[in-house]
Design a protein that fits this description.
The chain is of the alpha/beta class. It contains seven helices and ten strands. Strand 9 and strand 10 form a beta hairpin.
């Protein structure tokens, strides 16, 4: 598997001196075209790792490279553009804009990148249809169930044809059955789109959908395993 997103000796320290907190203490990780779950207890560094991988924050030292580009060397403006074009995001609460209908929420990354509204919403509508939301394009978030809202968030993450989709506790606000449904769609859709998927979760049931699970502790990777029943590209159902 060709690695496309890589970290080397990645470190993130908050504060100075004896009170310094080492959120990341030297992480080496290669992420290829796969579904990867990052697990660990609260304070283990998993969310900090996601933020560094996605170029949201700069590490204290070490490197994060995406297709040969060192994210830490890019300007804030360039990293913002990269997050809109190459990366997609799914958050625990969906973070949809309440005043926009589903199709415009899903199309938002394209419109922010300068794609005209008609083209953007047509692409978004195709993703909504693919995710089982045909006929709901004009509903606002308040008119959707939690699971439907997360499907809109998945469509928004995939509409730009990203290389990597990052998901931070994507089922945390859902009941168990809806969470399983959302994970199935998330893993299968990213795989079909040829994108890598990086999921931060504390839930073993969520992690089981991914083809690879890494566990963090005290800012380090302490375990890295393939899920035995996972098919290539992830997913065990």
């Amino acid at each position: 598997m060709t690695a496309t997103l890589c970290t080397r000796d990645l470190r993130m320290t908050y504060g100075d001196g004896p009170a310094a907190a080492h959120a990341l203490a030297g992480v080496d990780l290669d992420v290829g075209a796969e579904s990867l779950a990052v697990m660990g207890p609260s304070g283990s560094g998993k969310t900090t790792l996601l933020h560094c991988l996605a170029g949201i924050v700069r590490p204290t030292s070490g490197s994060v490279t995406w297709q040969g580009q060192d994210l830490a060397r890019l300007s804030d403006a360039r990293r913002t553009v990269l997050r809109r074009s190459d990366f997609g995001f799914v958050f625990q609460s969906g973070q949809l804009l309440p005043e926009l209908p589903a199709v415009e929420n899903a199309a938002l990354p394209l419109m922010l990148a300068g794609v005209d509204r008609r083209t953007a919403t047509e692409r978004a509508a195709r993703w909504l249809d693919h995710l089982g939301l045909a006929g709901l394009e004009q509903r606002r978030p308040g008119e959707l169930s939690g699971g439907q809202g997360q499907r809109v968030a998945i469509a928004r993450a995939l509409v730009t044809a990203p290389g990597v989709v990052f998901a931070d506790e994507p089922t945390g606000a859902l009941d168990a059955a809806t969470g399983q449904e959302v994970m199935s769609l998330l893993v299968r859709s990213t795989s079909a789109a040829g994108a890598a998927l990086v999921v931060v979760t504390h839930d073993e049931g969520v992690a089981a959908w991914c083809g690879r699970v890494v566990t963090m502790g005290d800012g380090l990777l302490v375990d890295d395993r393939r899920t035995p029943a996972a098919a290539p590209g992830g997913g065990v159902r």
